[in-house]
Predict the structure of Diguanylate cyclase (GGDEF)-like protein.
Amino acid sequence: MHLWSRRPFDLPFVASLGLFVFVLAWFAIGLAHVWPHPIIGWLPLPVLSALTTYQCWLTARSPALDDTTRRFWGQLGIACGLLVFGSISNIADAFGGPVISQALSIRTQLIFVAAVLVVLVALLRLPTWQRTSGDWIRFGLDTGIVALTGTVLLWHFSISRIDFATSTDTSPRSVLVIMLVAVVALITFVKVAFAGAGRLDRGALHILSAGVGLSASTGVLTPLIADKPHLAASLIAFPMSQLTATLAARRQRHNGPARETSRPDPRRFSLVPYLSVAILYGVLLKVELPRGGAEAMMACSVTGLTLLVVLRQITTLRDNSRLLDTVDTNLEQLRAYQKQLDHQVTHDSLTGINNRSAWADEISRRLAGGEPFVVALLDLDDFKVINDRYGHHTGDVLLQTISRRLRERLRPEDTVARLGGDEFTLLLPGLDDEGTEELLRALLAEVQCPVMVEGHDLAPRISVGVTASRPEDTAGEVLRRADVAMYAAKREGGGRWTWFDTVMDQLADSDARLGADLRQAILRDQLFLVYQPIVELPHGRLAGVEALVRWRHPEHGLIPPGIFIPLAERNGQIVELGRWIVEQAVHQTARWVREYGADAPEKVSVNVSARQLNEPGFPAEMAALLSAAGLDPERLVVEVTETAVLGTGIALDAVRALHDLGLRIALDDFGTGQSSLSLLVECPVTWLKVDKSFVDGVTTASPQAVIVDGLIGITRGLRMQAVAEGVETAEQAARLYQAGYRFAQGYHFARPMPHSDVELLFGGIRPDNSLLEIARR
């Protein structure tokens, strides 16, 4: 143990070590030589105690230690400080009279007793392990055994050899002090071995125990130096206790606080009783064998019999221990299984984080405690598409990645849980609105980073609903508000967070009622289709129509599609609604072909949502519908948005499958979404519909006009047809015609109309004189 290696030079410690060696050498030489000035060997004792007090004081002030440990070393320093005065008093006892004496005065004995009591208090105030009544009974028995053995040994080897009647240097009180020190040694040992020592360094406490024990054992030297008054047992006991205390204090200071240790196995085999019995029987044989006779034979017989009984008991204990080890192993496996079950009850099996049950318990506990917090509900946008496209295993890996990123980015006091599916929730205590937004900003930036999963480059997007707790809240109410806010974030485009507002509840209630009505709208024949003509420029001949859905509500009248279409997308009804629209459009187109032949519209456009494209089997469903209606696929144009096709590979594959069936593909609202020109190459587009937002600025020197002019060149190069949407004036129509557009759609030509009104346009031209006049210029 190199306590001073690789450390700065420690003068106080070196001084203590040097004084200890000096006193030890002085005492050893003094056994055979009478010093002319024996007091020189005693003078280092108070200095050693002072140096030890200093070491304990340094340890007691160490900021790395806990309060309990610092208190122990402070009290030990007080005890060592008392020994400074005790050693000076002892020197005065030895050399203050006419002759040198080994006797201790009452003053010195009181100082020693006070120091011992301080040490006892310090030891007893250390934290203890939890013990059962059986443990304490065994502890009492072991303590009695050790105390009795120590007393017998001390009596036999030391006290019994002192003649107090004739000795002027040794008194019974001195022997009592020695025995008190021995008791301290015993209590120190028992404290370490049985009761625990908190975060006190156990190595340091072992050093202290050894020092006290060695100091007490110096009492056996008393008979050997009875005729040498210039020597005393305390001349060895003092340096021994002080040096070991110095070593222990340095070890504690440099090692820092020890970890809390668990109590030892109560069934651990104890050698203390057997060792005590063996020692006493050894002393007995030592006393009786030299005498011989019947007493010696009886001592040998009893010793042998006891040895056999002990061996038999040890054998039985060993068998019992093996049996108990087997039981313990089974119990440990059972505990591990129970722990696993407990973990499964409160944790998500896929991600390993808390599940809904654990989250509800945690939030209920915090609500009961009145602690304010913020709850954020996270939902992955279009997660179903990832599962359908790449498989559920890929989706699971993505969820695990999201979970890991959340755990790594959150603070230690935050809680994350998976509620199920692709929903996660965060519990964020101690944050105001600004702190919450700062955390969410960093969180979304981290979580939404692209991730490579089994060769697929995925860019997760997350919508977050946020709400703060209220005193009257329940776990269900907090989650409900966060859910409402999360869907509001999705309505705004996703990939963002939204705070809950009471207005959202009103909108949610309205959406819920309207959604319930929408579910019945098809069955109650409240939905119908209208058709807006697509005309050919410049003369305005009918080139096709676009089928548009309308809803006539029994209470609210005509509800704009801008309200109920997004509602259907949010609540999942868009698939059923889209299926009904496509069926009606196909049957209407087939009827026009049967009744009007060549005069029927060449193209009928129908909108298909992203959710429909991602539905498994959608192309096959379209093929079956066209076959049942007997309609040529080339008559039908499927309109998709660029956002829908860019979302996942599933939608793009579905579009390609529809094109392979013979349907024409129109890219609707081009330029308003992610506007990837590469999509025009990857997607089999026949018609490109230029959004109204660009057409509005076509008659001015605006960036929109530049884009309109550029797009016509792109469509020509890619052999596509361009349709300008939202044409509202003759000037716009003329400008588009001059730019090269040959097809247009908008209120300038016709509003959406019932199929009966569309039939009036079949086979004819509806000229627009103002358009023709402007076009001739």
Observations:
- The longest strand covers residues 541-553.
